[in-house]
């Protein structure tokens, strides 16, 4: 009897894309709220967040998703 959950590569890629897109959305919203002065962000995060978004979008494209 097999242990664990087995899924095909296409399903794994779709799950990965959805998870990454959700996180990109979270980062964009966090940055938007900071720009509107609704929330506080550490100064390093203000600089790094757009870079993270760009990098995550590149990974999404690698897995076949669109941004």
Q: Quick summary of this structure?
A:
The protein contains two helices and no strands.
How would you characterize the overall build of this protein?
The chain has 67 residues and is an all-alpha fold. The protein has a domain of 28 residues. The chain contains two helices and no strands. α1 runs antiparallel to α2. The longest helix has 27 residues.
Describe the sheet with the most strands: none
Low-confidence stretches: none
* Percent of residues in β-strands: under 5%
The average pLDDT value, as a whole number, equals: 94
Specify the helix fraction band: over 70%
Query: Terminal Cα separation, in Å?
Result: 40 Å
Structural class: mainly alpha
Number of strands: 0
Number of helices: 2
Q: Which overall shape is indicated by the principal axes computed on the Cα atoms?
A: elongated
Tell me the series of helices and strands, N- to C-terminal. HH
Radius of gyration: 16 Å
